Each structure stands twice: as structure tokens, then as C-alpha cells.
Amino acid sequence: MRFWLAPCLALMCFAAAAQTVTMSGSMGDKALLVINGTPRTLAVGSAIHGVKLVSVTPNESVVELDGKRVLVPMGGAPVNLGGAASEGGGSQIVLTAGPGGHFMTSGSINGRTVQFVVDTGATYVALSQAEADRIGLNYKAGRRGMMATANGQVPAYITSLNVVRVGDVQVYNVDAVVVPASMDIILLGNSFLTRFQMKRENDRMTLDRRP
Questions:
Q1: Which residues are registered as beta bridge partners of 56?
Q2: pTM of the complete model
Q3: By C-alpha distance, which of 189, 182, 188, 195 is closest to 13?
């Protein structure tokens, strides 16, 4: 398993469905939003890709698209702005590589917003204990063991994630490993990726859900 320690880089997660928005932070009258997988900073009254920030507090934002206003809670699951709420029934994820060639995207685990980086060398979805604690994952109820990493053997917990979501695609009961590493980005490993047929063309990666 490899651990990416580079900071999160903005990249695009294209979705055939409508605009999705999450809130990852705030700075005064500005909100740190992730729109269709791409991090953006919006001031109150400004708009990008048709998404307008109406108001912001440390705990939530109100955004508007085509006259429809929606509350976006801090750290919540992606909010769909294009009509009926998405049930995560999509079957395709399309990612574009950012600087350094890494495929990174926002998503959610058990309804809590996280940042992923695709790692085909990781057996499981892998996250740090700090990140697992942040999203309320009861990983200590899982199986304890040792995990081989580039830095040697480290203690780990093997657990299962109820729901992993990227864009409009949800996958259930995904095996994961929780390790005492210092990383804010979660490795999207093969316990998730093998549910898809993967195709890469230059800087574009397409994941089509297997039947």
C-alpha cells in the first residue's frame, strides 16, 4: 500500500447528472464549496457554473441554482441542485487527472464528505484514524491486524464501510483499513475499484459499474 502525502489538488469529477455541492469550510463571507467534485471559494452574492452563494455561516451555506435555494450543511453528504435528490443510482464515474497525474475527487463515506485519491496499488479503501474519527466510523469494532506499508509494518483495523459515494454512484459494504498514518486524503483502493470496469485515456479515467 502506498500513502499519498501530497496536499489535495483541485480536479474535476464530471457527472452526467445535475450540479452537486458540498461545503468543506468558510472564511468570513466566503464559503469553501465543492461543486461537481471541484473545490471552489465563493463570496456571498457571487456565482460559478450557475451556483450562487446566498449566505454562509460556519455551519452551513445557502446556495441557489435556477431560482432554487438549498441548504448545504458543513461536512454533509453531496446536495443535488438539479431537481429531485439523487439516490446514488448512477453507474459511471469520470475523473480528470490533476497536477502530478493523481486522480482525486470529493465523495462521501456513510454520508460524511471526504476527499479521495484513486490508488490501484491499495488493496482496500484506506484512511487515517484521525479521519475515521472525524467521520464517526466505528472502526475499533473491526478486526485488528498489521499492515505492510512503505514505512514498514503498522497496526491497523479492518472494517466495512456501509456506503461509499462518488458523484451519483453509491457502493455498499466496502472493505476498508484504518491506519495510524497522517493523511487527510483517503485512498480509493481496490475494494472499491474492483466493482467497476476501469478505462484510462491520457488524463481521463472512466469507471463503469460492473453488472
A1: 61
A2: 0.63
A3: 188
